[in-house]
């Protein structure tokens, strides 16, 4: 929140945004003033005072995750055939990533719904039954105006967001969404290749039990802008990328500080984010070095965002 500006000094949409974002308690208002992000106009970072605990998510009702995988551009192979309309349409054999998340839910005590129908995100009321929404390799302009508004209202009501892989190649021209990703966006990537992931913070629910270093294969996204005010959970060691890290659009990589997963509080909600997950094998039983650690990492992130485990610690 832009603490040096008063609501009286603002007009039109800017005033409405500031008023809608204002937390309800004195402690939250102080947090928003001290932790506000001048780029996005919201309370953002790793301080839990940025979270809106408004009682919208009752653990006694169980935990639910909505997976959204709509693509409005190139489609990753792990998504498989585009899905039909509505909620939970029939799946095909090649919809391997969605099937993998469904199994995570079945094995770990949370319900999973899935859709590529933007109408299912048309209001905050449709989203509030879910403890978290996962954008699973969505592409480009995957939301219409109503869905953008609904997602923003949902997050401000304390909702959870999980962004996986090409969630970073989505809604490029929407600054609020870029902030939700941690002040980050996909720019380009080098070849899909093996590398070594370094577990940067082993206290988090998504990193507990992971090795300090583990092999994995991915596209190793280069990011512009680069994430800020987040807790970095895992990085890639660029020196282990035999085919180099230089992207197909010329990005030289990030050197010794190349994050692949992180978490933050954002505008009242919680967000857990990873650029990993490109390879189809990461979502299937077909062998891939480190795939068990990727799945463990993702599961811990999902559980933490939904409130089943401590978040971003």
From TrEMBL:
The organism's place on the tree of life at top rank: Bacteria
The record, for InterPro entries, names: Class_I_gatase-like (IPR029062), ThuA-like (IPR029010)
Q: Name one Pfam family in it.
A: ThuA
* Membrane-spanning ranges: none
Task: Give the UniProt keywords, A-Z.
Answer: Glutamine amidotransferase, Signal
Q: Which residues form the ThuA-like domain?
A: 95-302
Question: Which SUPFAM superfamilies does this one have?
Answer: Class I glutamine amidotransferase-like (SSF52317)
By what name is this protein known?
Type 1 glutamine amidotransferase
Q: Which organism is it from?
A: Nonomuraea angiospora
């Amino acid at each position: 929140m832009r603490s040096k500006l008063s609501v009286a000094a603002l007009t039109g949409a800017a005033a409405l945004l500031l008023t809608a974002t204002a937390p309800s308690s004195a402690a939250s208002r102080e947090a928003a003033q001290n932790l506000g992000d001048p780029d996005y106009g919201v309370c953002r970072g790793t301080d839990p005072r940025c979270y809106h605990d408004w009682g919208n998510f009752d653990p006694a009702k169980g935990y639910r995750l909505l997976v959204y995988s709509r693509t409005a551009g190139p489609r990753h192979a792990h998504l498989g055939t585009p899905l039909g309309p509505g909620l939970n349409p029939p799946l095909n054999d090649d919809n391997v990533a969605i099937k993998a998340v469904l199994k995570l839910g079945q094995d770990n005590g949370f319900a999973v719904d899935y859709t590529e129908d933007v109408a299912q995100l048309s209001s905050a009321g449709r989203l509030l039954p879910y403890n978290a929404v996962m954008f699973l390799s969505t592409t480009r302009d995957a939301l219409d105006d109503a869905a953008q508004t609904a997602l923003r209202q949902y997050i401000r009501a304390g909702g959870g967001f999980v962004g996986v892989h090409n969630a970073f190649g989505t809604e490029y021209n929407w600054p609020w969404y870029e902030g939700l990703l941690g002040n980050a966006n996909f720019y380009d990537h080098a070849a899909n290749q093996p590398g070594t992931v370094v577990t940067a913070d082993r206290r988090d629910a998504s990193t507990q039990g992971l090795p300090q270093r583990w092999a994995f294969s991915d596209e190793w996204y280069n990011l512009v802008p680069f994430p800020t005010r987040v807790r970095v959970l895992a990085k890639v060691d660029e020196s282990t990328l035999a085919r180099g890290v230089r992207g197909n659009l010329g990005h030289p990589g990030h050197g010794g500080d190349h994050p692949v997963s992180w978490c933050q509080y954002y505008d009242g909600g919680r967000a857990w984010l990873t650029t990993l997950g490109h390879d189809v094998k990461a979502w299937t039983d077909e062998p891939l070095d480190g795939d068990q650690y990727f799945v463990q990492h993702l599961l811990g992130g999902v559980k933490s965002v939904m409130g089943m485990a401590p978040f971003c610690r």
